[in-house]
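<instruction>
Derive structure tokens from the sequence

<record> Sequence and structure tokens follow
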Amino acid sequence: MKEKKKKTAQTTQKKRMPKSKKLLIMSVALLVAGLGVFFYPGIAKLITDAQQSAVIDEFNHNLDSIGNPTVPENDDEASETPLMNEEEAKNNKHYDPRLLAKLYSDIRKYNNDIYTSGQTLLDPFCYSQESFDLAQYSVYDYVFGYITAPSIDLNLPIYLGASDYNMWNGAAQMTGTSIPIGGKNTNAVIAGHRGVINKTLFDNIVFLNEGDSVFVKNLWEKLEYKVVKTEVILPSESDKVKIQKGKDMLTLITCHPYGYSDYRYVVYCERA
């Protein structure tokens, strides 16, 4: 009889063991899930930062492959260069120096035209339209350059036009403002998201201080700007990001406060 009770007890114990193991597995699973949720934003940001750095590395590699083009001296010569047709643009795998010279000439004219016309920055949808189809100038990946600010570890590719795609993948020049090649009577307004859960983007531009350097590397040269002022404005105050006569400016803009879009945080920079 005692032996039978002993066997019954052992059987009961064996039946209970799986429940304990299940609880342990569930506890571990919940712990792992909790840690995943806790660390996900940081890990995701590291991944996207690496992806953006890879885009910039590819941009530099493409420039190296053609010997790093310089600012063209003769706009008339550049303007005579024929554009690639659509099929050629799709098949192109390297920058064409002649087409880049044409692009620079066309951009300089564009920047001058928007200054002399007085700029119309009323319709927010116009900001998203591309001012140039870069593929027609042999820039098949549409990356115009990149922006860096060492003091806040900012390092993002620049696209032309503040479309959803461009804003999601880097910093975007707002159409209707100057394209960032520098020059008198220009103000390139570069927009970036803030508060995206898995991306850094423009989160840290609020930590830029007067005197900090901000660099723009475009297809031809690297430009250095210095922060001169920061300001919080209303979305409707477009006059505050217009070209200022005689100045060579770069303006960074993002939503404010963090996670909301009631205002705009603006960083004004002038050419060093």
